[in-house]
Amino acid sequence: MSIYDQHLDKTAANFVALSPVSFVERSAEVFGDLPAVVHGQRRYTWAQTRERSARLAAALRALGVGRMHTVSVMLPNTPEMVEAHYAVPALNAVLNTLNTRLDAALIAWQMNHCEATVLITDREFAPVMAPALKILREQHGREPIVIDVCDSEYTGAGECLGSLEYETLLATHAPLPTLDGPADEWDAIAVSYTSGTTGDPKGVVTHHRGAYLNAVGNAVTWTMPQFPTYLWTLPMFHCNGWCFPWTVAMQAGTHVCLRRVEARAILDGIRTHGVDHYCAAPIVHSLIYNAPPELRDGITQQVRGMVAGAAPPAAMIEGMAKIGFDITHVYGLTEVYGPAGVAAKRASWAAEGLSEQTRLNGRQGVRYPLQEGMTVMNPETMAEVPADGQTMGEIMFRGNVVMKGYLKNPKATEASLAGGWFHTGDLAVLESDRYVKIKDRSKDVIISGGENISSIEVEDALYRHAAVAACAVVAKPDPKWGETPVAYVELKAGASVTAEELVAHCKGLLAGYKVPREIRFEEIPKTSTGKIQKFQLRERAKSTSAIE
Question: Where is the AMP-dependent synthetase/ligase domain (predicted)?
Answer without folding.
Answer: 25-407
